[in-house]
Amino acid sequence: MADPDDLKRRIEAAHDAQKPKQLADTTTETASSAAAALGHSVGLVVALVLGAGIGHFIDTALGTAPLALLIFLVFGAIAGFLNIIRAGQQMAAKAAAKQGSDQADT
């Protein structure tokens, strides 16, 4: 029969071996999430600036003061938010797939 103290030491060793890996996975996921958030916010700002720039260029060329600027600024905002929504849906699908695979492993 197995020694209870030996079994307890083996269980503790297995738990200790898992701790650094779990900490590294959490740190990597946090850094990845922060990088994704920064990328999406930069994408939104770029879409807004690009829309405003195109609108300003058209207004200057056609002399239609703030009309094209406002229209293309709205288009830029819509494009930026659609990109964020699309990225959020992809992240949710990836998380659901990971959760499904984690449950299948257990």
Structural class: mainly alpha
Summed up, the helix count is 2
Count the E strands.
0
Q: What is the helical fraction, as a range of percent?
A: over 70%
> Which spans have pLDDT < 50 for at least 5 consecutive residues?
none
Sheet of most strands: none
| Radius of gyration over C-alpha positions, nearest whole angstrom | 25 Å
Which term fits the overall shape?
rod-shaped
- Give the strand content: under 5%
Distance between the termini: 28 Å
Average of per-residue pLDDT values: 85
What string, H for helix and E for strand, traces the elements in order? Answer: HH
Account of the 3D structure:
- The chain is mainly α and 106 residues long.
- 94% of the residues lie in helices and 0% in strands.
- The protein is built from 2 helices and no strands.
- Helix 1 packs antiparallel against helix 2.
- The longest helix has 59 residues.
- The chain is rod-shaped, with a radius of gyration of 25 Å.
- The mean pLDDT is 85.
Write the layout of secondary structure elements.
Layout: H1 4-62, H2 65-105
Helix pairs in contact: 1-2
